[in-house]
């Protein structure tokens, strides 16, 4: 058992790599699709919707097969790891786009009006006000998607990537104790998920602190109207 | 607080009938569905003039400010700001619908303070005041910081520069919102019921700040308020609205002491009894 630990850890490392890279791609696509989807012009929103609806409606595994086995027939041979990351990123990014769109649309209209009153353009409004406020609302559902992506990576062995599940299946088929090898698989996936959730919770705490939420931010009562400004200054 | 009577030195004559109006509404109509909020409204405001809009809820006062700030679009008529229309612009000798660039150029001379403050919760007080000058006006961060300090001094909150909006009372938040609007150096300041959301004991502080700004600057002010003594103190002119029309207008002394219209009398009586 101890002899094969490096193999397991290697599998864990591959799973972590796919999860992190897939999540980075999914996050970028989520923002692209979500911002397109919350645009004012209908045709821009339509671009976001086409991506979201297509990749939400396609099984990640089928997409992975298509990228790895079918694409070579039209002259594109993808590295299996890259195909896995691309399939998972495209799939989860479609769900993430809806999270971003929902969170952006949930930023109060009064905040948008304040940016107009300060004459901010679209990019300034989004970068300085809307996205920083929407980010805190996005994080909990994004955390769920991250875990889904990590668990969804358990099928990448089917396109020859030696991730954790791939290693476990190998160990099992070469005589490993069923209870032990699959028990280890459960344990490792659980630990990876916990590590990811810890990271997400840290980001949530930071995002909430930036919005002035949490124990450190309590409004001090104003000492009557005494400190009212202007007096001769 | 400077004690001079603002009526002693009006920055401009009332704009009625004059051609040098900084803001001009021409036959402006605003509807929400079947509800006509502004009914072919005409009025002018001169540069430096301080005009208070009074009237019952739903009479269209706030809509006027929102139209000027381009938060709403008129259904008819034309609104002019310093000679530029909010609905159209000139391109190649032709009048075409105003685009965002044109609106941003017109908007650059207008600032607004909202009833609910609308400070950005993701920023400290300092950033609330400096972000727009830095990113919109292209002012350096050092200059914006210095100006933020001066403005916070003006509104009596210099020590709160690194506080978070959630750590401030409503009155303090509103004073920061005033500083934020002034940081953009607007020529026109729109004040939309800026004390209505405040606890009564915090109202005086905000009004003191506005009185100070009114008496020490030549900024044009359009103010929607139910604070009649404030309106009397700072305005050059008061407009009484009802059902999307101006019922009566005149200098505050006349409107508050000798209103000509029965509607104005009944409104003032109701407000002052409140």
UniProtKB/TrEMBL annotation, chain A:
Span of domain ABC transmembrane type-1: 12-197
Major location category of this protein: membrane
GO molecular function: transmembrane transporter activity
GO biological process: amino acid transport
SUPFAM superfamilies reported in the protein's UniProt record: MetI-like (SSF161098)
InterPro entries, alphabetized: AA_ABC_transptr_permease_3TM, ArtM/GltK/GlnP/TcyL/YhdX-like, Ectoine_EhuC, MetI-like, MetI-like_sf
Gene3D superfamilies per the UniProt record, alphabetical: MetI-like
Cellular component GO terms, alphabetical: ATP-binding cassette (ABC) transporter complex
Compartments where found: Cell membrane
Organism superkingdom: Bacteria
Family membership noted in the UniProt record: Belongs to the binding-protein-dependent transport system permease family.
Protein name per its UniProtKB record: Amino acid ABC transporter membrane protein 1 (PAAT family)
Automatic annotation (TrEMBL), chain B:
One GO MF term: ATP hydrolysis activity
Domain ABC transporter: 23-268
Pfam families xrefs: ABC_tran (PF00005)
Domain of life where this protein originates: Bacteria
Membrane topology of this protein: Peripheral membrane protein
Subcellular location: Cell membrane
Keywords: Amino-acid transport, ATP-binding, Cell membrane, Membrane, Nucleotide-binding, Transport
A GO cellular-component term linked to this record: plasma membrane
Family: Belongs to the ABC transporter superfamily.
Protein name: Amino acid ABC transporter ATP-binding protein (PAAT family)
